[in-house]
Protein backbone atom coordinates (compact mmCIF):
# COMPACT_ATOMS: atom_id res chain seq x y z
CA UNK A 1 0.00 0.00 0.00
CA UNK A 2 1.16 3.50 -0.74
CA UNK A 3 0.84 6.04 2.03
CA UNK A 4 -2.33 8.09 2.09
CA UNK A 5 -2.92 11.47 3.68
CA UNK A 6 -6.20 11.18 5.59
CA UNK A 7 -8.17 13.81 7.52
CA UNK A 8 -10.60 12.57 10.17
CA UNK A 9 -13.30 15.11 11.10
CA UNK A 10 -15.91 15.24 13.85
CA UNK A 11 -17.58 17.86 15.99
CA UNK A 12 -15.65 17.14 19.18
CA UNK A 13 -13.84 14.43 21.11
CA UNK A 14 -14.16 16.21 24.45
CA UNK A 15 -17.15 14.18 25.69
CA UNK A 16 -15.59 11.00 27.05
CA UNK A 17 -19.02 9.37 27.40
CA UNK A 18 -19.58 9.52 23.63
CA UNK A 19 -18.37 6.51 21.66
CA UNK A 20 -16.72 8.50 18.82
CA UNK A 21 -14.52 10.29 21.41
CA UNK A 22 -12.78 6.93 21.81
CA UNK A 23 -13.25 5.21 18.47
CA UNK A 24 -12.28 8.07 16.13
CA UNK A 25 -8.97 8.96 17.85
CA UNK A 26 -8.16 5.26 18.23
CA UNK A 27 -8.78 4.72 14.52
CA UNK A 28 -6.53 7.68 13.72
CA UNK A 29 -3.76 6.15 15.84
CA UNK A 30 -4.25 2.74 14.22
CA UNK A 31 -4.11 4.23 10.71
CA UNK A 32 -0.89 6.06 11.56
CA UNK A 33 0.50 2.77 12.85
CA UNK A 34 -0.03 1.06 9.50
CA UNK A 35 1.49 3.83 7.42
CA UNK A 36 -1.08 6.55 6.76
CA UNK A 37 -0.46 10.22 7.41
CA UNK A 38 -3.35 11.28 9.63
CA UNK A 39 -4.77 14.61 10.74
CA UNK A 40 -7.80 15.11 12.99
CA UNK A 41 -9.99 18.21 12.74
CA UNK A 42 -12.44 19.01 15.56
CA UNK A 43 -14.30 22.10 16.71
CA UNK A 44 -14.19 24.18 19.84
CA UNK A 45 -13.47 21.92 22.78
CA UNK A 46 -10.10 20.50 23.75
CA UNK A 47 -9.56 16.72 23.72
CA UNK A 48 -9.78 14.57 26.85
CA UNK A 49 -6.54 12.89 25.78
CA UNK A 50 -3.95 13.35 23.02
CA UNK A 51 -4.56 11.77 19.63
CA UNK A 52 -1.41 9.70 19.27
CA UNK A 53 0.09 9.48 15.79
CA UNK A 54 -2.07 12.25 14.32
CA UNK A 55 -1.86 16.02 14.09
CA UNK A 56 -4.92 17.25 15.96
CA UNK A 57 -6.20 20.68 14.96
CA UNK A 58 -8.98 22.27 17.01
CA UNK A 59 -10.83 25.01 15.13
CA UNK A 60 -12.84 27.87 16.65
CA UNK A 61 -16.61 27.63 16.51
CA UNK A 62 -18.46 30.29 14.51
CA UNK A 63 -21.61 31.92 15.86
CA UNK A 64 -21.46 29.78 19.02
CA UNK A 65 -23.88 32.03 20.89
CA UNK A 66 -26.62 32.11 18.28
CA UNK A 67 -29.68 29.88 18.82
CA UNK A 68 -29.73 26.97 16.39
CA UNK A 69 -26.40 27.72 14.72
CA UNK A 70 -24.57 27.29 18.02
CA UNK A 71 -25.83 23.72 18.32
CA UNK A 72 -24.65 22.84 14.82
CA UNK A 73 -21.00 23.52 15.75
CA UNK A 74 -20.34 25.52 12.60
CA UNK A 75 -16.69 26.37 12.01
CA UNK A 76 -15.84 28.50 9.00
CA UNK A 77 -12.16 28.03 9.85
CA UNK A 78 -12.43 24.23 9.60
CA UNK A 79 -14.34 24.51 6.36
CA UNK A 80 -11.68 26.79 4.89
CA UNK A 81 -8.85 24.52 6.04
CA UNK A 82 -10.45 21.49 4.37
CA UNK A 83 -10.79 23.37 1.08
CA UNK A 84 -7.01 23.76 0.83
CA UNK A 85 -5.69 20.72 2.74
CA UNK A 86 -3.52 18.48 0.52
CA UNK A 87 -5.25 15.31 1.74
CA UNK A 88 -6.24 12.29 -0.35
CA UNK A 89 -9.40 11.55 1.63
CA UNK A 90 -11.68 13.09 4.28
CA UNK A 91 -13.45 10.77 6.74
CA UNK A 92 -16.14 12.27 8.98
CA UNK A 93 -17.67 10.62 12.04
CA UNK A 94 -21.36 11.18 12.79
CA UNK A 95 -24.23 13.06 11.20
CA UNK A 96 -26.40 16.14 11.71
CA UNK A 97 -23.64 18.63 12.60
CA UNK A 98 -21.78 21.06 10.35
CA UNK A 99 -18.39 19.27 10.51
CA UNK A 100 -20.13 16.15 9.11
CA UNK A 101 -20.81 17.85 5.79
CA UNK A 102 -17.52 19.70 5.26
CA UNK A 103 -15.64 18.05 2.41
CA UNK A 104 -13.50 18.54 -0.68
CA UNK A 105 -15.58 17.82 -3.82
CA UNK A 106 -12.39 16.76 -5.61
CA UNK A 107 -11.36 14.27 -2.90
CA UNK A 108 -12.82 11.00 -1.68
CA UNK A 109 -15.29 11.47 1.17
CA UNK A 110 -16.13 8.79 3.76
CA UNK A 111 -18.90 8.95 6.36
CA UNK A 112 -19.27 6.87 9.51
CA UNK A 113 -22.92 7.42 10.56
CA UNK A 114 -22.11 5.98 14.01
CA UNK A 115 -25.57 4.51 14.46
CA UNK A 116 -27.39 7.73 13.63
CA UNK A 117 -29.41 6.14 10.79
CA UNK A 118 -30.93 3.47 13.03
CA UNK A 119 -34.72 3.71 13.49
CA UNK A 120 -34.48 4.37 17.24
CA UNK A 121 -31.90 7.13 16.73
CA UNK A 122 -33.94 8.74 13.94
CA UNK A 123 -37.01 8.79 16.18
CA UNK A 124 -35.40 11.41 18.44
CA UNK A 125 -35.72 14.98 17.07
CA UNK A 126 -37.26 13.50 13.92
CA UNK A 127 -38.51 16.77 12.41
CA UNK A 128 -35.20 18.57 12.93
CA UNK A 129 -33.29 15.71 11.32
CA UNK A 130 -35.58 15.66 8.30
CA UNK A 131 -34.97 19.37 7.79
CA UNK A 132 -31.21 18.93 8.15
CA UNK A 133 -31.24 16.06 5.67
CA UNK A 134 -33.08 18.14 3.11
CA UNK A 135 -30.89 21.20 3.71
CA UNK A 136 -27.36 19.78 3.72
CA UNK A 137 -26.77 16.32 5.21
CA UNK A 138 -28.46 14.36 2.42
CA UNK A 139 -26.35 15.96 -0.31
CA UNK A 140 -23.14 15.17 1.56
CA UNK A 141 -24.18 11.58 2.27
CA UNK A 142 -25.11 10.84 -1.32
CA UNK A 143 -21.74 12.24 -2.46
CA UNK A 144 -19.72 9.92 -0.21
CA UNK A 145 -17.41 7.49 -1.97
CA UNK A 146 -17.85 5.13 0.94
CA UNK A 147 -20.06 4.76 4.00
CA UNK A 148 -18.61 2.99 7.04
CA UNK A 149 -20.76 0.59 9.09
CA UNK A 150 -19.41 -0.98 12.26
CA UNK A 151 -21.64 -4.06 11.95
CA UNK A 152 -23.89 -6.01 9.58
CA UNK A 153 -26.83 -4.52 11.45
CA UNK A 154 -25.69 -0.98 10.72
CA UNK A 155 -25.10 -1.90 7.07
CA UNK A 156 -28.72 -3.05 6.84
CA UNK A 157 -29.93 0.17 8.51
CA UNK A 158 -28.01 2.25 5.96
CA UNK A 159 -29.63 0.33 3.10
CA UNK A 160 -33.08 0.52 4.71
CA UNK A 161 -32.67 4.29 4.93
CA UNK A 162 -32.27 4.35 1.15
CA UNK A 163 -28.56 5.06 0.64
CA UNK A 164 -26.96 3.06 -2.18
CA UNK A 165 -23.29 4.11 -1.75
CA UNK A 166 -20.67 1.40 -1.28
CA UNK A 167 -20.49 0.42 2.39
CA UNK A 168 -17.41 -0.86 4.19
CA UNK A 169 -18.20 -3.03 7.23
CA UNK A 170 -15.42 -2.77 9.80
CA UNK A 171 -16.05 -2.93 13.55
CA UNK A 172 -14.53 -0.64 16.12
CA UNK A 173 -11.43 -1.93 17.82
CA UNK A 174 -10.83 -2.18 21.54
CA UNK A 175 -7.85 -1.76 23.83
CA UNK A 176 -7.70 -4.89 25.98
CA UNK A 177 -6.36 -4.30 29.51
CA UNK A 178 -4.69 -6.89 31.72
CA UNK A 179 -7.07 -9.43 33.23
CA UNK A 180 -7.39 -8.34 36.85
CA UNK A 181 -10.55 -9.36 38.66
CA UNK A 182 -11.01 -8.27 42.28
CA UNK A 183 -12.00 -10.79 44.92
CA UNK A 184 -15.74 -11.42 45.13
CA UNK A 185 -17.50 -9.27 47.70
CA UNK A 186 -20.59 -9.88 49.76
CA UNK A 187 -22.75 -8.12 47.18
CA UNK A 188 -22.57 -9.00 43.49
CA UNK A 189 -23.13 -6.33 40.84
CA UNK A 190 -24.97 -6.02 37.55
CA UNK A 191 -23.62 -2.94 35.79
CA UNK A 192 -24.93 -0.82 32.96
CA UNK A 193 -22.74 2.07 31.85
CA UNK A 194 -23.17 4.80 29.26
CA UNK A 195 -25.30 7.83 28.48
CA UNK A 196 -28.43 8.01 30.62
CA UNK A 197 -30.78 8.63 27.71
CA UNK A 198 -34.24 7.25 26.82
CA UNK A 199 -32.71 5.37 23.86
CA UNK A 200 -30.94 3.11 26.33
CA UNK A 201 -34.31 1.86 27.68
CA UNK A 202 -33.14 2.01 31.28
CA UNK A 203 -36.72 2.31 32.49
CA UNK A 204 -37.37 -1.08 30.94
CA UNK A 205 -34.28 -2.46 32.64
CA UNK A 206 -35.38 -1.19 36.05
CA UNK A 207 -38.85 -2.67 35.60
CA UNK A 208 -37.32 -6.00 34.51
CA UNK A 209 -35.12 -5.92 37.61
CA UNK A 210 -38.18 -5.38 39.80
CA UNK A 211 -39.76 -8.54 38.35
CA UNK A 212 -36.89 -10.83 39.39
CA UNK A 213 -38.05 -13.42 41.88
CA UNK A 214 -34.65 -13.62 43.59
CA UNK A 215 -32.28 -10.65 43.75
CA UNK A 216 -30.80 -11.43 47.14
CA UNK A 217 -27.11 -10.59 47.31
CA UNK A 218 -27.22 -8.55 44.06
CA UNK A 219 -27.47 -4.88 43.12
CA UNK A 220 -28.07 -3.06 39.82
CA UNK A 221 -25.72 -0.16 39.22
CA UNK A 222 -26.62 2.38 36.51
CA UNK A 223 -23.64 4.63 35.68
CA UNK A 224 -23.35 7.49 33.22
CA UNK A 225 -23.83 11.16 32.36
CA UNK A 226 -27.38 12.47 32.68
CA UNK A 227 -28.99 13.69 29.44
CA UNK A 228 -32.07 15.89 29.67
CA UNK A 229 -32.81 15.07 33.29
CA UNK A 230 -33.43 11.37 32.57
CA UNK A 231 -31.38 10.29 35.59
CA UNK A 232 -33.91 12.03 37.84
CA UNK A 233 -36.72 10.16 36.11
CA UNK A 234 -34.93 6.86 36.75
CA UNK A 235 -34.39 7.67 40.42
CA UNK A 236 -38.09 8.51 40.72
CA UNK A 237 -38.99 5.14 39.18
CA UNK A 238 -36.61 3.34 41.54
CA UNK A 239 -38.33 5.04 44.50
CA UNK A 240 -41.80 4.31 43.12
CA UNK A 241 -40.97 0.59 42.83
CA UNK A 242 -39.33 0.53 46.26
CA UNK A 243 -36.02 -0.83 44.98
CA UNK A 244 -33.24 -0.46 47.55
CA UNK A 245 -30.84 -2.53 45.44
CA UNK A 246 -30.68 -0.13 42.46
CA UNK A 247 -28.34 2.88 42.34
CA UNK A 248 -28.08 5.57 39.67
CA UNK A 249 -24.60 7.10 39.67
CA UNK A 250 -22.86 9.82 37.67
CA UNK A 251 -20.27 9.14 34.98
CA UNK A 252 -16.87 7.53 35.51
CA UNK A 253 -13.90 7.72 33.14
CA UNK A 254 -10.43 6.28 32.68
CA UNK A 255 -9.29 4.06 35.54
CA UNK A 256 -12.62 4.57 37.31
CA UNK A 257 -14.51 3.17 34.34
CA UNK A 258 -12.17 0.18 34.03
CA UNK A 259 -12.59 -0.50 37.76
CA UNK A 260 -16.39 -0.44 37.36
CA UNK A 261 -16.21 -3.07 34.61
CA UNK A 262 -13.81 -5.25 36.59
CA UNK A 263 -15.86 -5.06 39.79
CA UNK A 264 -19.08 -6.07 38.02
CA UNK A 265 -20.13 -9.71 37.79
CA UNK A 266 -22.32 -8.98 34.78
CA UNK A 267 -22.76 -6.13 32.30
CA UNK A 268 -26.18 -5.40 30.79
CA UNK A 269 -27.15 -3.28 27.78
CA UNK A 270 -30.89 -2.68 27.44
CA UNK A 271 -30.63 -0.34 24.45
CA UNK A 272 -33.23 0.14 21.75
CA UNK A 273 -30.59 0.62 19.04
CA UNK A 274 -26.78 0.87 18.68
CA UNK A 275 -24.51 0.67 15.67
CA UNK A 276 -21.78 -1.03 17.72
CA UNK A 277 -22.01 -0.38 21.49
CA UNK A 278 -18.47 0.24 22.69
CA UNK A 279 -19.53 -0.53 26.25
CA UNK A 280 -20.11 -4.17 25.33
CA UNK A 281 -16.60 -4.45 23.89
CA UNK A 282 -15.15 -2.64 26.92
CA UNK A 283 -16.93 -4.96 29.35
CA UNK A 284 -15.75 -8.06 27.51
CA UNK A 285 -12.20 -6.72 27.29
CA UNK A 286 -12.26 -6.33 31.09
CA UNK A 287 -13.40 -9.95 31.48
CA UNK A 288 -17.07 -9.30 32.30
CA UNK A 289 -19.85 -11.31 30.59
CA UNK A 290 -22.70 -9.40 28.95
CA UNK A 291 -26.46 -9.44 28.51
CA UNK A 292 -27.42 -7.32 25.48
CA UNK A 293 -30.64 -6.72 23.61
CA UNK A 294 -30.73 -7.29 19.89
CA UNK A 295 -30.75 -3.53 19.54
CA UNK A 296 -26.96 -3.90 19.47
CA UNK A 297 -25.10 -6.13 16.96
CA UNK A 298 -23.62 -8.65 19.38
CA UNK A 299 -24.86 -12.08 18.26
CA UNK A 300 -21.34 -13.32 19.04
CA UNK A 301 -22.11 -13.13 22.75
CA UNK A 302 -23.85 -16.47 22.39
CA UNK A 303 -21.67 -18.09 19.72
CA UNK A 304 -18.53 -17.18 21.70
CA UNK A 305 -20.06 -18.33 25.00
CA UNK A 306 -19.61 -15.02 26.79
CA UNK A 307 -23.15 -13.74 27.26
CA UNK A 308 -26.78 -13.50 26.23
CA UNK A 309 -28.23 -11.76 23.14
CA UNK A 310 -31.93 -11.25 23.75
CA UNK A 311 -35.12 -9.83 22.31
CA UNK A 312 -36.48 -6.49 23.49
CA UNK A 313 -38.96 -6.41 26.34
CA UNK A 314 -39.15 -6.70 30.10
CA UNK A 315 -39.95 -10.41 30.07
CA UNK A 316 -36.91 -11.33 27.95
CA UNK A 317 -34.66 -9.12 30.07
CA UNK A 318 -35.99 -10.57 33.33
CA UNK A 319 -35.45 -14.12 32.09
CA UNK A 320 -31.90 -13.40 30.93
CA UNK A 321 -30.96 -11.66 34.18
CA UNK A 322 -32.41 -14.54 36.20
CA UNK A 323 -30.41 -17.09 34.20
CA UNK A 324 -27.18 -15.11 34.50
CA UNK A 325 -27.55 -14.27 38.18
CA UNK A 326 -28.22 -17.92 39.01
CA UNK A 327 -24.72 -18.85 37.83
CA UNK A 328 -21.88 -19.07 40.35
CA UNK A 329 -19.30 -16.28 40.34
CA UNK A 330 -16.69 -18.61 38.87
CA UNK A 331 -18.92 -19.59 35.96
CA UNK A 332 -19.59 -15.96 35.07
CA UNK A 333 -15.86 -15.17 35.34
CA UNK A 334 -15.11 -18.03 32.93
CA UNK A 335 -17.60 -16.58 30.44
CA UNK A 336 -15.94 -13.18 30.81
CA UNK A 337 -12.54 -14.70 30.09
CA UNK A 338 -13.90 -16.14 26.83
CA UNK A 339 -15.14 -12.69 25.89
CA UNK A 340 -11.75 -11.16 26.56
CA UNK A 341 -10.08 -13.79 24.35
CA UNK A 342 -12.57 -12.90 21.60
CA UNK A 343 -11.70 -9.20 21.82
CA UNK A 344 -7.98 -9.99 21.60
CA UNK A 345 -8.54 -12.21 18.56
CA UNK A 346 -10.91 -10.19 16.40
CA UNK A 347 -10.96 -6.58 17.59
CA UNK A 348 -7.35 -5.40 17.71
CA UNK A 349 -6.86 -1.84 16.49
CA UNK A 350 -3.97 -2.90 14.26
CA UNK A 351 -6.28 -5.17 12.29
CA UNK A 352 -8.94 -2.46 12.11
CA UNK A 353 -6.36 0.06 10.85
CA UNK A 354 -5.18 -2.25 8.08
CA UNK A 355 -8.71 -3.03 6.94
CA UNK A 356 -9.72 0.64 6.92
CA UNK A 357 -6.60 1.70 5.03
CA UNK A 358 -7.34 -0.93 2.35
CA UNK A 359 -10.86 0.48 2.00
CA UNK A 360 -9.46 4.01 1.71
CA UNK A 361 -7.04 2.87 -1.00
CA UNK A 362 -9.95 1.50 -3.01
CA UNK A 363 -12.05 4.65 -2.50
CA UNK A 364 -9.18 6.83 -3.74
CA UNK A 365 -7.66 4.68 -6.48
CA UNK A 366 -10.33 2.17 -7.50
CA UNK A 367 -9.62 -1.36 -8.65
CA UNK A 368 -10.93 -4.51 -7.01
CA UNK A 369 -12.72 -3.69 -3.76
CA UNK A 370 -11.47 -5.39 -0.60
CA UNK A 371 -13.68 -8.02 1.00
CA UNK A 372 -14.93 -5.57 3.62
CA UNK A 373 -16.64 -3.40 0.97
CA UNK A 374 -20.19 -4.12 -0.16
CA UNK A 375 -21.34 -2.49 -3.39
TrEMBL record:
Residues 19-173 form the Glycosyltransferase subfamily 4-like N-terminal domain. Transmembrane segments: none annotated. This is Glycosyltransferase involved in cell wall biosynthesis.
Amino acid sequence: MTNLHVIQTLASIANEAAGPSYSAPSLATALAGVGARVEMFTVGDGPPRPVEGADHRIFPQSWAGLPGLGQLRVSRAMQAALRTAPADLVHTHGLWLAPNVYRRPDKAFVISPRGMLGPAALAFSRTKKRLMWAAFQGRAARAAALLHATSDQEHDEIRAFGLTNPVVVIPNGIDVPSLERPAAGATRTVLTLGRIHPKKNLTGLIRAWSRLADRQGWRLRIVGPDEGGHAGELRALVAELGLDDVVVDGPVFGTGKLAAYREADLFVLSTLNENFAMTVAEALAAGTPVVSTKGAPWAGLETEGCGWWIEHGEVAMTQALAAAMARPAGALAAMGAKGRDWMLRDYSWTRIGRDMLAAYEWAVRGGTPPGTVRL
